[in-house]
Design brief:
alpha+beta, Alpha-Beta Plaits, 3 domains, 6-stranded antiparallel β-sheet, 7 helices, about 30% strand, globular
Length: about 325
């Protein structure tokens, strides 16, 4: 009996040792695969194309380039903030089956956001968020999150164009601007009394806007669910555009409620139309489908602004939208 128990114990230890050996072999194989994949990521090319010297995280297989935004002095609640405390721009590259993926966060000042966003979108990158990280910052700092997939040449080249655009803007203007670029309107102020004619805008949007004191607002809801409860326009799941000023000298501001797949087409359409993006973020949790909100601001004639806003509605299918729910 004792011999039988001893034999079982020996066999158990042998089986355990065999299993551990298999695990070590598998770990070695995965490590070799990781090293092989990492070798395919041309880090020297990333350095050359971005103009920065990156750092390799061998464990994650990620190559990351960074630089501090120390060209503009930022104060938080009066305190001179060192870039080390959260003012670093970065882009991280990792190998994929079809080339590479890049993700990053770009530290921007208000007058840099929209020119840089256009460069990112025009060069095949997606803009996934735009928001602040601080309160009482002077000048105000924004963070634009990006991602993309493709060849190292394409991705690193796009990142370099973003960084060069920042340098071009900041080079002659060390102090960030404190107003939007007004374009053909110059610095002309908005009229004190609003007088927007709603008729042409109603025609452009194909719906009756809400008028108040010479201003006009259009609101389009879209169905979703949160915690199993149906939510729509009045619960905050809506796209809207509000117009003020005069027909020839107007301002539009508003918000688009879009799915993840609709975000990039909406951003591109608005930027092509000369509309400034001022925020991209979420308003809810556990909603179905997931909804992102992008906020915008534009100046120009009311008709041109309405056409630009309508263009983004068309490319996202939000004009008179009916969207099936995912159950």
């Amino acid at each position: 009996m004792i011999n039988s128990i001893a034999s079982e114990s020996v066999r158990g230890r042998s089986t355990f040792a065999f299993a551990m050996k298999k695990l070590f072999i598998l770990a070695a194989i995965f490590a070799a695969m990781s090293i092989s994949a990492l070798a395919a990521l041309d880090t020297a090319k990333i350095d050359h194309l971005t103009g920065l010297k990156g750092k390799l995280n061998e464990k994650e297989g990620v190559y990351k380039v960074t630089f501090p935004r120390d060209d503009v002095k930022v104060r938080i609640s009066g305190w001179a903030m060192p870039p080390f405390m959260g003012l670093g721009t970065w882009a991280a590259f990792t190998e994929t089956k079809n080339g590479a993926m890049v993700m990053g966060d770009t530290v921007l000042f208000e007058d840099e956001v929209n020119p840089v966003m256009s460069i990112a979108l025009d060069n095949g990158l997606s803009v996934t968020a735009l928001h602040n990280h601080f309160f009482f910052d002077e000048p105000k700092v924004y963070f634009m999150h990006i991602e993309g997939e493709g060849s190292v040449d394409k991705l690193a080249g796009a990142i370099r164009k973003i960084y060069d655009t920042i340098k071009t803007i900041r080079g002659p203007n060390a102090k960030p601007a404190n107003t939007f670029e007004e374009g053909v309107l110059g610095q002309e102020s908005l009229p004190e009394k609003n007088s927007i004619n709603p008729a042409p805008l109603n025609e452009i949007f194909g719906m009756q806007g809400e008028s108040k004191d010479g201003m006009v607002k259009f609101t389009i809801g879209r169905p979703a669910k949160m915690h199993g409860v149906k939510i729509d326009k009045e619960m905050g799941v809506n796209t809207w555009a509000a117009f003020a000023g005069s027909d020839d000298n107007a301002v539009v501001d508003g918000d688009y409620a879009v799915t993840e797949d609709e975000l990039q087409p909406a951003l591109k359409a608005l930027r092509v139309g000369g509309i400034n993006i001022v925020a991209i973020h979420s308003h809810m949790t556990h909603e179905n489908p997931r909804i992102l909100f992008l906020h915008y601001w534009g100046r120009g004639s009311s008709k041109k602004l309405a056409q630009a806003v309508k263009g983004a509605l068309l490319v996202t299918g939000l004009s008179g939208v009916t969207m099936p729910l995912v159950h």
